[in-house]
Amino acid sequence: MKRFKSKNVLPGFGLSLGFTIFYLGLIVLIPLAGVFIKTSGMTFSEFWNTINNPRVIASYKISFLTALYAAAINAVFGLLIAWVLVRYKFPGKKIIDSLVDLPFALPTAVAGISLTAIYAPNGWIGKYLEPLGIKVAFTPLGITLALIFIGLPFVVRTIQPVLQDLEKDTEEAAVMLGAFRLTTFRRVILPELIPPLLTGFAMAFARGIGEYGSVVFISGNMPMRTEIAPLLIMTKLEQYDYMGATAIAMVMLLISFFMLLVINYLQWRSNRRVISN
Predict the structure, then answer these.
(1) Fewer CB within 10 Å: N-end or C-end of the chain?
(2) Cα dist. 189→164, 194, 265 in Å?
(3) Which has the higher per-residue pLDDT, 271 or 205?
(4) Do residues 212 and 108 lie in contact, with contact meaning Cβ atoms separated by under 8 Å?
(5) Average pLDDT over residues 176-184
């Protein structure tokens, strides 16, 4: 009995797949492979001394922790903003909706300068916070604020389409059966939103780790205190220490990849749970 291969309805799969692999390899894989190839020229002791330097470790902590805090805050308030934009009608809704995309269009350097001017000790808001003992500019708090600004659209735009596609019949049925609003949200709506929420969180977190332009102004770039890892990489490059820069970049790449794998695994688990229910 002969076996016939099922053909796709739309032809050209092999050619399009080849172009896809070629493009991803050229744009993504080759540059990332260059980081590992360049770092391989170092001995293990040189590599370890570079990444184990207290200044480098402090920059890792600042970059990853501030990106994590900012992504977590954006996950909460991004969900709230997406909910308001989808579920309610009010004057100026289109203006607010367009403002969400402003961090996408605004150059990161402009965002950093603007935030620094506002939250500096003599800024519009900073001068009122300074007497209260709250310092924003040139502190990790300022870095987190900058990452919240540039990461918010990732969460809102990921959740918004899912909210628009949710059918309200299930919610209305739950309410008619006597469920409270909070119970309806927790049992009916939230399980559907967890996968896109994790996706938005992962995108905001990944953007925050590598952010440079909006952070370099408001951070103050003080070693061991507010110096981020991307700035340290730039410093190494300016000193022509290319291997040191690629060593720091490789560690960031591996940690970021591992954390994204964990987030994608959690997203996969939540998707399976939603489908099974």
Answers:
(1) N
(2) 12, 9, 21
(3) 205
(4) yes
(5) 64
